[in-house]
Amino acid sequence: MNPLTEKQIRASFVNATRREAAQATVPDLAEPAWNRLDYLGWSDRKAPLSAYVVLELDGTPTGVLLRASAAPASGRRRKALCAWCRDLASVGAMLYVARRGGASGRAGNTIGTLVCEDFSCSRNARRPPTSAESGSGIEAIADQVVAERIAGLRERSTQFVRDVTATL
């Protein structure tokens, strides 16, 4: 992923009002290892149920405002499989819902997905494969497993953003 500026991030949101984009808390942009990210995702520290994802869609930064599901009354969430990186070994997935872009979103239409609660999909996709995933542990096979995970993550996250921008 190419490094982004705060201005690019705020201008990228396809399903947020100007006010929501202006009020978004942007993370420290010097911190990410941009060459190891497939998307930039973060939770808003001022609004705990708000989260954001920005990725490159057709070479253009495209951002989505997400709303997290509220914690269950028990305080415990069940472990779920992330729909993007398909990794269970990490923190666990959380349901995020995005208002669709344009008139469809203004009419109240939304779309949801399960994503790693801490948006660690890029790291999860790049972790070394287990012996069950790579078989005999040959490095070329391990590299192929990681490459396939990264390609799948990019495909699934990009498709979600496309679905948010699509009109019904």
Shape: globular
What is the rounded distance between the termini?
Answer: 29 Å
Coarse structural class: alpha+beta
Strand order of the largest sheet: 1-2-3-4-5
| Total beta-strand segments | 5
- Output the helix-strand order: HHEEEEHEHHH
Radius of gyration: 16 Å
Helix tally equals 6
Largest sheet at a glance? 5 strands, antiparallel
Estimate the helix proportion, in percent: 25-40%
Report strand %.
15-25%
- Quote the average pLDDT: 88
List low-pLDDT spans: none
Summarize this structure briefly.
The chain has 168 residues and is α+β, with helices and mostly antiparallel strands.
Question: Could you characterize what this model shows?
Answer:
This protein is of the alpha+beta class and 168 residues long. The chain contains six helices and five strands. The protein has helices spanning 6-12, 18-23, 102-106, 121-125, 131-134, 139-165, and strands spanning 40-43, 50-57, 60-68, 93-99, 110-116. A five-stranded antiparallel sheet has the order 1-2-3-4-5. The radius of gyration is 16 Å and the shape is globular. The mean pLDDT is 88.
Task: Map the helices and strands.
Elements: H1 6-12, H2 18-23, E1 40-43, E2 50-57, E3 60-68, E4 93-99, H3 102-106, E5 110-116, H4 121-125, H5 131-134, H6 139-165
Label this structure with key terms.
168 residues; alpha+beta; five-stranded antiparallel β-sheet; 6 helices; 32% helix; globular
